[in-house]
Design a protein that fits this description.
Length: 255
């Protein structure tokens, strides 16, 4: 697999920041929780959970764990490691199985989404009200209000996705758009809790070219995620679900 010069530079910069040379890496894991002892000399463990977890398994020196949110270009790092022949430990290719094609949409209502929509409208109307006033300084609160309305509409478009599985593809729906991923273009899918408690859970995708995508799927019931993962496996995708479906978020103890 060929990587671009920009991808290579990004990956090498990350390894340099971790003070790790490519020759030191025996293998790596990605889109998988990491279990570690919380303190030396204790038997308790602590998970690193959520999206974008990269674990570098070093030769005789333990592991290094890095969070790779989208702005840290996880696609570049993974493509670079794969192109250099570093084994991808937790990628298990699946064989598609013959099954009756059923189209199903996984969606639930969200009061939190309604709350964000109300805030978007409120700040949008407030911004127009400030502009229409006669005072010269009205543009200052107007800019702030319009900025907040853009923030809330961005949250509506990116934090409240739901899913459809049909006979050929996984479709991700959000406010104003739908993205279709044919099963043949996907390698790996993982579901986990989001680290932001308010947005509950996420879906990570790795396509056939090892490019990474992250979606917040708050409008999908967490109790359906294991079912979705099993359906994706029958389509030839390495799908995993790391959630306890009795919990609302990772630290929830009232389940």
């Amino acid at each position: 697999m060929e990587v671009t010069a920009k991808e290579q530079k990004r990956a090498e910069q990350l390894l340099q920041n971790q003070r790790t040379g490519l020759h030191q890496i025996e293998s790596f894991s990605f889109m998988k929780r990491y279990h570690q002892a919380s303190h030396k000399g204790t038997t308790t463990s602590k998970d690193k959970y959520g999206p974008g977890i990269l674990t570098l398994h070093l030769k005789g020196k333990g592991d290094k764990v890095v969070y790779l949110p989208p702005f840290r270009h996880p696609s570049s790092v993974i493509r670079f490691l794969v192109s250099k022949g570093v084994p991808f430990d937790n990628y298990v290719p699946q064989e598609p199985t013959v099954a009756e094609p059923v189209t199903e949409t996984y969606r639930r209502p969200s009061l939190y989404m309604f709350y964000f929509f109300v805030l978007f409208l409120m700040f949008l109307i407030l911004g127009y009200y400030c502009i229409s006033g006669d005072v010269w300084w009205g543009f200052i609160p107007a800019i702030i209000s319009f900025g907040l309305s853009l923030f809330f509409i961005n949250m509506l478009m990116t934090r409240f996705c739901y899913l459809t599985l049909d006979k050929d593809a996984l479709v991700v729906h959000s406010v104003g758009r739908s993205i279709r991923y044919p099963y043949t273009d996907l390698r790996k899918v993982n579901f986990d809790f989001a680290r932001e408690q308010a947005f509950t859970h996420v879906m990570e995708l790795l396509d056939k070219d090892y490019r990474y995508r992250l979606f917040y799927i708050g409008r999908v019931s967490r109790k359906k995620l294991n079912e979705i993962a099993e359906r994706l496996k029958t389509s030839g995708i390495d799908a995993t679900c790391s959630l306890n479906d009795h919990k609302r978020f990772y630290q929830d103890i009232r389940h």
